[in-house]
Amino acid sequence: MANTVDGVETAVEPFDAFEDLLAALARGPDIRDIFRHLSAVFSRIVPHEEAHLAVLTGDDDRILLYTATRDGAAEVRAVERKVAIADADQPRLLDVVPGTERGLQSGLSVPVRIDGRLVGVFALFSRRQQIYSDDDLVHAETLAGYLAVALAHERLAQHAREAAVERERTASIEASMELLQTIADVLDIRTVFSRVSEIANKMLPHDRLVMAFIDREGNLIRQAASTDDVPSPTRVKLTTARPEAFIIDDLRTDAFPNLAAEDLRDRAVRAGYRSMLSVFTHARDQVMIVGFYSKQLHAFHPGDLPVARRVADHIALAVSHERLAEAARQLAETQTRAECLEARVRMLSEELESKTHVRVVGESAAWRDVLKKATKVAATDTTVLLAGESGTGKEVVARFLHRASPRNKGAFIALNCAALPEQLLESELFGYERGAFTSAHQAKPGQIELAAGGVLFLDEVSEMSLSAQAKFLRVLQEHEFQRLGGTRSLKANIRVVAASNRDLRKAVDGGTFREDLFYRLQVFDIHIPPLRERRGDILPLSDAFLQDISKSFGRPPAGLTRDAREALLRYDWPGNVRELRNALERAAILAEGGLIDTAHLTLQGAGRTAQEPTADLSTIERDTIAHVLQDTKWNKAKSARRLGLSRTQLYNRMRKYGLE
């Protein structure tokens, strides 16, 4: 066979060329690697300047186009199918040749088939016009057959690779299941993090695995690592525009994307690490980063990202499980503490009643909350301020607190600051030396000394004079005091529980109470709600009071009719618990051992009608005092002045009518 090249006929050795072609095809299964060499062999059979092979990818509208030139390198690019495949399912000489800008003048194309199915198109192009003949088409078809064999081998190799990938995927799933089993019952993933890294190595080989969280300021906080050869960095910070994942091929030269982590990189390089892969995910409502480090350069590639993300998701799942388990544990501990606290409140209530005959009665949530707070603070020596209206039970809470404290073996000393004039209050509180004043014929210890080792309860502390406040402030600050007329300092080994029915903050603003003393007293404050805000306690208190009253009368407890109970629940109780007890005591007397009805209860708006007024002088006096106290917001000094009474007379009447 002869061909004409540049006007000169040259002899072609087809058998030698085909042998070379077989040798080229034997080089490897990937036709992309040998197509340029194939083009050179083809030119000995069918001369050309460019050779094209367009292969269908299985997609309807895209192909792979392999292009080889006799003087250039082979290249592969994706193109639209309609451009390269249209009308090319039969051998033909081309009338229109693509590539005229490169000087191409003529060409031919033949189909490439495997098992009779079109898989591509093989084309040859020349810079000479009308150079190709039907014989060249026959030779080109033979060459297309060889290409079909090469493509078939390539596809077999591709199937083998896909099978290997599938095997790897199966192994990866098995490793993933093993990883899940490892972390399923772990409450702290850090304890098994080395094992996590070991299993993850089956899916993504690495030399070091790190888990860290990013706080709200963007700081990277190390949480766990499979090795300890890289010291924790002093500061690592992520910028706002962080990537979802990144790969660093060379830690010595490549920068961290959107990550100010030079310190971290230097430490990793010093430990021998050369490349890394990091992915971001979420756990504990925070951003979590999982980093894979290798001591090899270019150890990771984009194909590793799905596996890395799967490992990171497993770790995030374990961290979230850990958080849920921790929340459940904390909830269980909280419930246990609450149950223990409830049990201790019950025990202390029973103990207080048996030791002091002071009953702690109440079932409302508000009252139980007061007792729980008192129980919690009781174990300390902290000063406590009890706030609430008169008669709400502040002294009962103070005695309960004393009983629950380590000072329960010491005395409980109660002093009402409003019931004593200024000088008498100071002498009662601090004591005095002989000759301190005219009637001081001998020394007398004060309540502070008598309460040594125990609790001093100061009721109505807002009524303490400014002079006494200044002296008592020293007791709280320095734990020492002086008797009136004395010169030596005495130690004050007491715990102070103060109470007030006035708003001490307003008293401070009004200049009647020292601000520094206010802060000293209000270290731990407990507000005791009025009885009208805890109506669930009214009937239990009523039953307890009727039992106590019956003992003093020497007869069985009086009962309450349904109407009487409803009247008790409707009433607002301005005098609170103390008023309730006095009302029941009076009703028990009037009932003479029978059931207490609304007629026996002297309650405004309860158990009365307009036709049955039962007003008497005592009731008028009580109502007047209650009205004035409410009008002055329970300011005793103002109320006494308005009523024309001394403070001592006012307190006597308040105790008489249960308005304390």
Furnish the topology, listing elements before pairings.
Layout (H helix, E strand, L loop, with lengths): L1 E4 L2 E4 L2 H12 L5 H12 L7 E7 L5 E8 L5 E6 H4 L7 E3 L11 E9 L2 E10 L7 H50 L9 H11 L4 E7 L5 E6 L11 E2 L6 E4 L10 E2 L1 H9 L4 E9 L2 E9 L10 H52 L8 H14 L5 E4 L6 H11 L7 E5 L5 H9 E2 L11 E2 L1 H4 L4 E5 L6 H13 L1 E2 L8 E2 L3 E6 L3 H6 L5 H7 L2 E4 L10 H16 L8 H9 L5 H16 L25 H15 L4 H8 L3 H10 L4
Helix pairs in contact: 1-2, 4-5, 4-7, 7-8, 7-9, 8-9, 12-14, 15-17, 19-20
What does the model show?
Strand 4 (62-69) and strand 5 (75-80) form a beta hairpin. The chain has five domains: 2-159, Beta-Lactamase (2-Layer Sandwich); 189-326, Beta-Lactamase (2-Layer Sandwich); 358-524, Rossmann fold (3-Layer(aba) Sandwich), CATH 3.40.50.300; 530-612, Helicase, Ruva Protein, domain 3, CATH 1.10.8; 615-660, Homeodomain-like (Arc Repressor Mutant, subunit A). It is α+β, with helices and mostly antiparallel strands and 660 residues long. 44% of the residues lie in helices and 18% in strands.
Largest sheet: 6 strands, antiparallel
Task: Give the CATH architecture of the largest domain.
Answer: 3-Layer(aba) Sandwich
Summed over residues and divided by their number, the pLDDT gives a mean of: 79
* Tally of separate helices: 20
Overall 3D shape:
elongated
Oligomeric form: single chain
Strand order of the largest sheet: 5-4-3-8-7-6
Calculate Rg over CA atoms: 49 Å
CATH class of the largest domain: Alpha Beta
Uncertain regions spanning at least 5 consecutive residues: 1-12, 606-612
Helical amount among residues, as a percent range? 40-55%
Instruction: Classify the secondary structure makeup into a structural class.
Output: alpha+beta
